[in-house]
Amino acid sequence: MLKKIFYVSGLALFSIVSGQEAKKETETAKTKMDVFTSKTGSITKFTDIKLPYLKASFGSAETRIRKISNGKVTAYFYQISKEGKYSNTTASIEYTDLNEVLKALKALQNEVNNDILANPDYLENKFVTVDGFQVGYYIDTGNVHWYIKLEKYGSDATLFIDKYEAIETAFSEAKNKIDSLKGTP
């Protein structure tokens, strides 16, 4: 009988701790956009500025700059939206992350030729932001395939891009547009 009490008590304690850990994981999974827009007690204004579509191997994705003002604080995000079969998937890349993605793209471009020469059966090289956005390429039997993954989870969140230049151009144009909106050179 005492064994059963200890077992049930241990099981209850385990489920409480597990539940708290799961709650902690969901709390820490907030993106920069979520954190910025979840401020209560103030007015939040969203302004979208459309950019050219990003051409992918299988269709295209809508892109825009989203300016968010909350009180006296303003943030800028580069958004890429892919229409899926059942819903849309959107990446919101904060301005400082956008700069990091541009640096990473250059680094990846510098490595791609050496990776091809290594002649792997399969190789993947990517950069991931804190929010889970990914950009990179994979090499399969000597062919390079560039991609961006809009969200950390989901099966319909990846855009395959034929050429590196299309990604670099889209991200550079987004950065330049944000710089002009901010009034920075």
Summarize the structure.
The chain is α+β, with helices and mostly antiparallel strands and 185 residues long. 41% of the residues lie in helices and 37% in strands.
Task: Outline the fold blueprint.
Elements (H helix, E strand, L loop, with lengths): L1 H27 L3 H6 L6 E13 L2 E12 L2 E11 L4 E7 H23 L4 E7 L5 E7 L2 E7 L8 E4 L2 H19 L3
Antiparallel strand pairs: 1-2, 2-3, 3-4, 5-6, 6-7, 7-8
Helix pairs in contact: 3-4
Task: Record keyword descriptors for this entry.
single chain, 185 residues, alpha+beta, four-stranded antiparallel beta sheet, 4 helices, 8 strands, 37% strand, elongated
Would you kindly provide a written description of the structure presented here, covering whatever features stand out?
The protein is elongated and about 55 Å long. The protein has a 4-stranded antiparallel sheet with strand order 1-2-3-4. Strands 5-6-7-8 form a 4-stranded antiparallel sheet, with helices on one face. The longest helix is centred in the N-terminal third of the chain and has 27 residues, at 2-28. The protein is of the alpha+beta class and 185 residues long. It has helices spanning 2-28, 32-37, 95-117, 164-182; strands at residues 44-56, 59-70, 73-83, 88-94, 122-128, 134-140, 143-149, 158-161. The termini are far apart. α3 packs antiparallel against α4.
